[in-house]
Specification:
The complex is a heterodimer of chains A (291) and B (344).
Chain A (H helix, E strand, L loop, with lengths): L1 H30 L6 H19 L6 H25 L3 H23 L11 H4 L1 E4 L3 E4 H23 L1 H11 L1 H6 L4 H26 L6 H17 L4 H21 L4 H15 L12
Helix pairs in contact in A: 1-6, 1-9, 1-10, 1-11, 2-3, 2-4, 2-9, 2-10, 3-4, 3-9, 6-7, 6-9, 7-9, 10-11, 10-12, 11-12
Chain B lengths: L1 E5 L5 E7 L5 H16 L1 H4 L2 H26 L8 H16 L4 H23 L4 H20 L10 E2 L8 H28 L1 H11 L1 H6 L4 H27 L1 E2 L1 H4 L2 H14 L5 H16 L6 H16 L3 H10 L9 E4 L6
Antiparallel strand pairs in B: 1-2, 2-5, 3-4
Helix pairs in contact in B: 3-7, 3-10, 3-12, 3-13, 4-5, 4-6, 4-10, 5-10, 7-10, 12-13, 12-14, 12-15, 13-15
The chains are: A mainly alpha (291), B mainly alpha (344).
């Protein structure tokens, strides 16, 4: 039963990892940007949430209503300024600039908010309570909620991309930005919208992780970026639902690793990532080849 | 090398293809003098100064390797700390088996290069951004694996044995010389590599990868070679690090900070020139020394400067010098110069 429990826990944490990964995947799919500051921005979102909760005393979950729009605006602005101007100069510059951003954010947080780790809403009943199935399986309400949010976000993203006006624009620009530009779509603005959406998911990921565990300045790269990336690669580059599958595989691998030896949690996840990289570099769900 | 071209008027004009726009003998002599002067430093300066210089040597070596990867081969690795860590741990393991850490240094460098082969096999499947994060994951994985071995200190690391009873002054001097030798070999090695066939292939790939491939350049092999050389260089730097710190700690040697330092130093100095990392290391050391009492500020400032340079002065500080003065101290490209009248 302990193994069944590990697998269930792994599947549920997979939702959290999918929340980390879908923004990374979206930005790569649309703008061909690999945002190395992805995880640090999630931590920033978490810190903003902590600040909002401390200052305004709103209920913890209400902070989402403030932080997600704030991050979306930040995403739009960053895309239109820093990321777009580095994109214009090539892939190398984009990597250098986002890596620089990552190091600056991480050390800035360290400088202003110390290396102390902080959680979000640690005393809430939602965060601490759980229900039991049988004697061995214990499911935390929070993890279940995060998984549901992840699925809802992915469904929302799919609906947004396939049905809405901006979704169609984003797909058009991702396919061929010059052609879309000729047809009257300002691709820079569309990129900004896509970044805003991606940053919104980043905000959710940061807050969810802050409630699930603790945030500190290094969480952004050590955990969020690397897990997001592993989930994207395992699931398949450019596949939206692949991020959920990849997250679940990563989560299950980690929980099984932890079941074998408590210190092997991270290692087991990365080893599964490497195995997928060797055996199936296109990921478990590979997007159909462009015709 | 010389070649003649026929102009429209039918007049024969001669061009010479040269390596340099100026005489390279002078820079060679200058470099030699600098190295000789640096070699005498342990006799003339305090050990505090040589300790700072050892740090500069480590940064210069890893920055030059990162420059080779990103500036010449287009491989942005964010996981070079893997090799810094491996080099340090190879020295530790060999020292635990009774070998002198200085004798272990070259073995550690070669060992890191050998380790680069299977790692390349893993990450070479991915391009640009995904390659970058994959190298990062690899570095994290290697650290987690090493932390599992309690005989080499596990997660908390251990002091480097092999120096008990050694005169501290002598140890400082030897460490300094080891750092100097590693740096000189790294720079000379990169210079010679880039002047040879590899340099030509990499230039061809930079200009047009498809054309380079279709004209028979073995692009994959060239990139593999660069990755292995960078592994050797970063491993050697890690070995010097272990010797200078006298202890090896996984979170310190496998820190992403190494990649931040090597990337920022290279970008600020000038990506894709051999001189760039040298200038960048000077900037890095000056900032680090002046701001060292303000914790992480030097990295924040370095990061901001590197981002600004990447966006607005893409050829870095050395690029600015080159534009004004038209010099290359370490020419690896070719230039067309008008030759003497009357044939070759």
């Amino acid at each position: 039963m302990a193994w069944v429990n590990a697998i269930i826990q792994g599947i549920l944490t997979g939702g959290l990892y999918a929340l980390f990964a879908c923004g990374l995947s979206l930005m790569f799919g649309v703008m061909k940007v690999v945002n190395l500051a992805h995880g640090d921005l999630a931590v920033v979102a978490g810190y903003i949430a902590i600040g909002v909760i401390t200052v305004t005393h709103v209920p913890v979950l209400w902070s989402v209503v403030i932080v997600v729009p704030v991050m979306a605006v930040l995403g739009y602005v960053l895309q239109r300024t820093l990321i777009q101007s580095s994109l214009d100069r090539g892939v190398l510059t984009t990597l250098i600039v986002t890596f620089g951003l990552s190091v600056v954010i991480e050390n800035g947080l360290l400088q202003f908010f110390t290396a102390n780790s902080r959680g979000i809403g640690a005393e809430m009943t939602l965060v601490t309570s759980s229900f039991k199935i049988g004697s061995q399986i214990e499911i935390a309400y929070l993890l279940l909620l995060i998984f549901a949010v992840a699925v809802a976000v992915l469904l929302g993203l799919q609906y947004f991309l396939s049905r809405s006006k901006y979704g169609r624009l984003i797909r058009a620009v991702a396919d061929d930005k010059e052609a879309a530009q000729l047809a009257g779509a300002d691709y820079r603005h569309v990129f900004g919208i896509a970044a805003a959406v991606a940053f919104g998911t980043v905000a959710l990921g940061g807050i969810a992780f802050g409630m699930y565990s603790d945030l500190d300045p290094t969480t952004g790269t050590d955990t969020i970026l690397l897990f997001a990336f592993a989930a994207v690669v395992i699931g398949g580059l450019g596949s939206l639902w692949g991020t959920l599958l990849g997250g679940v595989v990563l989560g299950v691998a980690q929980q099984i690793g932890a079941q074998i030896n408590i210190s092997d949690e991270l290692l087991a996840g990365f080893i599964v990532f490497l195995v997928v990289l060797v055996l199936r570099p296109q990921g478990l769900i590979s997007r159909r080849a462009p015709s | 090398m010389s070649l003649a071209t026929q102009t429209a008027a039918g007049r024969t004009e001669n061009f010479r293809v040269t390596r340099s726009r100026r005489n390279v003998v002078w820079t060679g002599a200058g470099a030699l003098i600098v190295v000789v002067v640096l070699a005498f430093f342990p006799y003339i300066v305090y050990s505090g100064t040589t300790a700072i210089l050892v740090q500069a040597f480590i940064v210069l070596t890893v920055a030059s390797m990162w420059n080779l990867l990103a500036g010449y081969a287009g491989l942005v690795s964010v996981g070079q700390q893997a090799f810094v860590g491996l080099g340090a741990y190879f020295v530790l393991i060999l020292a635990l088996h009774g070998l002198s850490p200085f004798a272990a240094l070259p073995i550690a460098a070669i060992g890191s290069g050998v380790a680069a082969l299977p790692l390349w096999w893993l990450v070479s499947r991915l391009r640009s951004g995904y390659f970058a994060i994959a190298t990062w994951v690899l570095a994290a994985t290697i650290m987690l694996i090493i932390e599992k071995f309690t005989s080499i200190g596990g997660g908390s690391g251990m002091p480097l044995p092999g120096f008990t009873g050694m005169n501290p002054t002598l140890l400082t001097a030897y460490t300094y010389w080891a750092g100097l030798i590693v740096t000189v070999l790294a720079l000379a090695g990169i210079y010679l590599l880039l002047r040879g066939r590899l340099g030509l292939v990499l230039t061809a790939v930079r200009d047009d990868e498809v054309a380079a491939r279709s004209s028979g350049s073995r692009v994959g092999l060239a990139r593999l070679l660069v990755f292995v050389v960078a592994g050797v260089g970063c491993g050697a730097a890690g070995a010097v690090l272990a010797i200078s710190q006298l202890q090896v700690q996984p979170s310190a040697v496998f820190s992403i900070q190494w990649t931040a330092e090597m990337a920022f130093a290279t970008i600020i100095g000038g990506l894709g020139t051999i001189e760039g990392p040298i200038i960048g290391t000077v900037v890095y050391m000056v900032l680090q020394q002046t701001l060292q009492s303000y914790n992480a500020w030097y990295l924040i400032i370095l990061g901001l400067v590197a981002m600004a340079v990447a966006l607005f002065a893409r050829r870095g500080l050395w690029g600015l010098v080159d534009e004004r003065l038209n010099i290359r101290l370490f020419p690896v490209g070719y230039w067309l110069r008008p030759g003497k009248q009357g044939g070759p």
